[in-house]
Amino acid sequence: MFEELIPEVRTLTADDLGIGIKAKAATGHASSAPDAPEIAANDPRVQEIIRLANQFGGVLLSGPPGTSKSFYAAAAAQHLTGGDNARCRFVQFHASYQYEDFMLGFSPENDGFGIKKGPFLSLAHDAKDDPGNAYVLVIDELSRADVGRVFGEALTYVERSKRELPFRIANGDELVVPTNLIILATMNPFDRGVDEVDAAFERRFAKISMDPSAELLEGILVDNEMDEALAAGVLRWFRRVNEHARKNPAAAVGHAYFADASDTASLMDIWEYQLKYLVQRAFRRDVNTLADVEAAWKRTFVVPAPEGTPMGASGREPPPDPEAGQ
Question: What sequence ranges are listed for the domain ATPase dynein-related AAA (predicted)?
């Protein structure tokens, strides 16, 4: 009846809407993989990750935001796989990430539902079929998900001593975690679920602390050709705020926040749109320290006056105070 009244109407399929199983997901812009890092294979940190990955089968990179965890995980993965992207997967955990996303789930098909392999199961099968090469799974934000639920029965068998032992997954199939499957994961030690992650993985994987580094920051600022006096001010502030972080870990500021810092304008953008909120949140119950950190930031832009210069004069004016005149 409906079709007779409107002869042009037709039923839309899932593929017409772009949500069917034939529709390909965009992997470029939405990928959780970081940009391909340019870190030499002989970089000490990369060498450490590679050595521990081969020894333990998995490495946790633990540190506050901005400490290059994802960057180094991606670099190590590139070197472990010889740059073969087919042997590497990147996934990002989040609060709603589940076993069905990671291991095994169901996917709609024309005549019902079929089994859909998650990245872990898919890479485990690939690694088992190619024992002469390393396969790497990079998990970003490991502590954001319930790792016990996400890994399921596989959690026991990612341990090096239990690799190659068969076990059954949710659909009843037998699986082994091959020795050439390496897991590199990043985590923030201040996330809510970090205790569960530590309990699950500390005995199974190696763990590397990724701390804010003034040495790495100095190298970044030199590479970005920042004025020496301005760079010295940034380093003074960086050391000061991270000294406060010894008592208040949430205040830690990673060196990678300054990856694009090259001059006063770029520094002010970093402060106004990123760092300001971090320090305000970290010191919201400590107004005196907050005031100290904010005042120290403003002093970053003041060059010490040479001898004989009148009081109050300097070679560079501090940035305008956004609160002034309000």
Answer: 58-205
CATH number (domain holding residue 155) = 3.40.50.300
Task: Give residue 318's identity as a one-letter amino acid code.
Answer: P
Q: What is the pLDDT of residues 252-268, one digit of tens each?
A: 999 999 999 999 999 99
**Residue 16 domain-assigned?**
no
Question: Which residue from 149, 41, 54, 135 is spatially nearest to 93, judged by alpha carbons?
Answer: 149
- According to DSSP, residue 104 is labeled E
Domain co-membership, 63 together with 127: yes
- Residue 316 pLDDT class (50, 70, 90 cuts): very low
113 CB-near residues (< 8 Å, 6+ apart): 106, 107
pLDDT tens for 39-49 read 777 889 999 99
Q: Label residue 306 by pLDDT band (50, 70, 90).
A: low
Return the residue matching tokens 């994961």: 185
Q: Are residues 97 and 197 in the same domain?
A: yes
Domain of residue 127 covers 33-209
Specify the number of domains making up the chain: 2
- Across 18-168, where does the E strand assignment appear? 58-62, 88-92, 104-109, 112-117, 135-140, 167-168
Single pTM value for the model: 0.79
105 plus 167 within the same structural domain: yes
On whether both 233 and 199 belong to a single domain, the answer is no
Distances (CA, A) of 213 to 47, 189, 218: 18, 17, 9
* Per-position DSSP letters for 151-194, written without gaps between them: HTTHHHHTSGGGTT--EE-TTS-EE---TTEEEEEEE-TTSTTH
Residues 6+ apart with CB under 8 A from 228: none
Report d(CA 76, CA 50) in Å as an integer.
6
